[in-house]
Specification:
The chain has about 350 residues and is of the alpha+beta class. Strand 2 (about 130) and strand 3 (about 135-140) form a beta hairpin. Helix content is about 30%, strand content about 35%. It has 3 domains: about 1-105, no CATH class; about 115-255, Jelly Rolls; about 260-335, Phage tail protein beta-alpha-beta fold, CATH 3.55.50. The chain has helices spanning about 1-15, 20-30, 40-50, 60-75, 80-85, 90-95, 100-105, 250-255, 270-280, 305-315; strands at about 115-120, 130, 135-140, 145-150, 160-170, 180, 185-190, 195-200, 205-210, 215-220, 225-230, 235-240, 245-250, 260-270, 285, 295-300, 320-325, 330-335. Strands 1, 2, 3, 4, 5, 6, 7, 8, 9, 10, 11, 12 and 13 form a 13-stranded mixed β-sheet that branches. The chain is built from 10 helices and 18 strands. It comes from Pedobacter kyonggii. Keywords: Membrane, Transmembrane, Transmembrane helix. InterPro entries: FecR, FecR_C, Ferrdict_sens_TM.
């Protein structure tokens, strides 16, 4: 057994052990019954190789003191400790790695470190560009909130929270899936670009893909239910209240058009469109007529002022939709007798 441990010890010093072997070694060395001098020949090699690289850190010195205490407790009074003194420097060098009893114990306990969270909230009419710790880029839309950790752990999940709208350009990392939580919905990728629309007060959730592949799932009572795998040009529209969804195609250039002040609406009801226009243009819109609730529009507005947008809606409705803009209060009143 001791011969095997000595061989294992030598491999550890050379950096050739795996986690299981290190566990066996550390548990053996942690036992006071094994704090004798059978490792002197191994330490001799460590002394020769490491004599110029002594570690004087607090952890090493404290660890060395504990080993001396163990040795002194086990040595007969008449027995000299001189052979061990020769290797004191070697023990200090390797203390935290090979005889670091406390360091090893800490690795067996769950990490207690807390990763700080960072949040960014945008106002109506505002959009910002953010760079995450992994170099992924996020364009955060108006009236939205993004929360992310101050750093991502390599090999772990890159989890963030979105309330609102954002376009993501995710840095590819096959060992660390990128997951966006939006209410009861979850979007997972490795490296791609996509847009999420997930305002908490709205009744719809959508994901549209520009590049790569995206998996969209619903979190139902703690269980994930995969809804769809999306590829470029695909968009999922999920109705939160009805808990049903549709998947359709759209131009990839329209996925993140809002970043450049181009807003595309496809078969959208007037109330939902007005909610989006409120956020984009930082105005308050009052819809005074229920007769307009079922009006649906297909429209794209590129670099238009809100007054131009309202005029185009007036024309598209067959002039049944009427509006009034109060520039002082930034309020738009909308009424009418329905659409053509």
């Amino acid at each position: 057994m001791k011969e095997n441990i000595k061989i294992l010890f030598g491999h550890y010093l050379a950096g050739k052990t795996n986690p299981e072997q290190e566990k066996i070694l550390m548990e053996y060395l942690a036992d006071p019954a094994n704090a004798d001098s059978e490792f002197h020949d191994v330490m001799e090699k460590a002394w020769t190789k490491q004599r110029g690289e002594t570690d004087y850190s607090l952890a090493a010195v404290q660890g060395l003191a504990q080993i001396w205490n163990k040795v002194e407790e086990r040595q007969p009074k008449s027995r000299s400790l001189f052979p061990l003194l020769k290797y004191a420097a070697a023990i200090v060098v390797i203390i935290s790695a090979s005889l670091g009893w406390y360091a090893y114990k800490k690795t067996q306990q769950p990490l207690q470190t807390t990763i700080a969270l960072i949040s960014k909230t945008t106002q109506k009419g505002e959009k910002v560009k953010l760079v995450l710790p992994d170099s992924s880029i996020v364009y955060l839309g108006a009236g939205s909130k993004l929360t992310w950790p101050s750093h991502f752990v390599k090999g772990g999940l890159r989890k963030i929270q979105l309330d609102g709208e954002a376009f993501f350009e995710v840095k590819r990392d096959t060992t660390s899936p990128f997951i966006v939580h939006s209410g009861q919905m979850q979007t997972q990728v490795l490296g791609t670009s996509f847009n999420i629309y997930a305002y908490p007060k709205d009744r719809t959730f959508s994901v549209a893909v520009r590049t790569g592949k995206v998996k969209v799932s619903e979190n139902s009572q703690g269980k994930l239910k995969e809804l769809s795998l999306l590829t470029p040009g695909m968009k999922i529209l999920y109705h939160l209240k009805e808990r049903n969804y549709t998947v359709h195609t759209e131009r990839v250039t329209e996925v993140n058009a809002w970043i450049k002040n181009s807003f595309a609406f496809k078969d959208v009801t007037l109330p939902n469109m007005l909610k989006s226009l409120e956020r984009y243009y930082n105005v308050h819109i009052e819809l005074k007529s229920n007769k307009l609730n079922q009006c649906r529009f297909n429209a794209t507005f590129s670099n238009k002022s809100i007054s131009n947008v309202m005029e185009e809606l007036h024309v598209m409705s067959g002039k049944h939709l009427k509006y009034k803009i109060d520039t002082g209060t930034k309020t738009i009143t909308v009424w009418g007798e329905g659409c053509q």
